[in-house]
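Notes from the 1:1 (GR / supervisor)

We went over the backlog. Supervisor wanted to see one worked example end to end before approving the batch request, so GR pasted a single chain during the call. The sequence is below; no edits were made to it. Supervisor asked that the structure be written out right there so they could see what the output format looks like.
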Amino acid sequence: MYYERTLSSIVKKATKSFKVVLITGPRQVGKSTLFDSFKEENRTKVTLDDTDVLALAKHDPNLFFQTYQPPILIDEVQKAPELLQYIKKIVDGTNEKGLFWLTGSQKFNLMQGVSESLAGRVAILDLQGFSQAEKENDVSRPAFVPDMPLQTKRPIWNAMQTFDAIYKGSYPQLFDGVTDWELYYKSYRDTYLMRDVRDIIKLEDETIFSRFMKILASRTSQVLNYTDIASDVGISPNTAKSWINILKTLGIIYLLQPYFENNIGKRFSKTPKMYFMDTGLCAYLCGLNSGEMIYNSHLSGAFVETYVVSEVIKSYIHNGKNPNIYYYRTSNQEEIDLIVEANNKVYPIEIKQSATPNISMAKNFKLIDEKKRGIGAIICLSDKFIPLNKDTYIIPISYI
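Structure output shown during the call:
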């Protein structure tokens, strides 16, 4: 079954406005498939996962572009940063738009090269696995804010449907014929993920990195404590921090920064919270092999929060927008799970594994200046999308 991507319309617009369009994101989320869905017949496609093509790109970029002339789609371009200077020369010699489509799955090194070579010439977009909107073929769904129209009609999930969605994850192949969930994620970890990690750093013992990922997965939705993670894995805190940055670079995890007023001044908390972007991968790493196992696990609340945060992030990046989202925690440990800055407002959000939310769950919303505060939300397992009061909505998880 073909699933349309929300980002498609953004990519089409970017192709008409920019000479180069780059889509970044983890392996296997559908970056080249998105381009393929509307690729012109005269556009060449090459992948640098092909060792012969990669060798040509790295050792003779000039011959590479004589062999593969634009318009062109280059998959995994970060493997041959040597190409970027040649792309710059080509696009600087023409006014034609959309000559180069690029994909890349190692964001840090790639972005460094792009900023040096293609500044002002490239549209940079980010893609993750399927959003819930995309699974429901609702690609026009806008970036999430709590004050969506109350008349919106969407499927309502019960608890087990929610945890089944959390368990399944978001990688497109899982929705296109792959039936062995455990084998898929084992293969993903052992091939794509570990291969990309090896491309970035030299691992003396891959089993230690595997243990690190399992321990990190068990801490999804928590404030990062590099010392504790390092102690559990048996590595130094600096190594733990470096490895976390690698997974962030690969788009596997997201670091949610603490909120502070007007983006200036002293933060109440200085440490980010960490979320896996794909709950299926996180469940696999935790050894939770069904929605029911996640539901009955002590990590169930963490998985609910991780799912909601990742869906909110995808609602923004798949609409070509930067997610201005944060969490809020004071020195007295008063916390708001999620803060969304949009429309010149600050929207406070609590995420609860509950079907019967109450007003006490929104008590910390008062920490946000009333003049700036937008409609608050309790996102939960409720079966209704209704106001809790004039300032707060109850939003079912399936609505985000």
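Supervisor's comment: Residues 263-267 have pLDDT under 50 and may be disordered.
Batch request approved.
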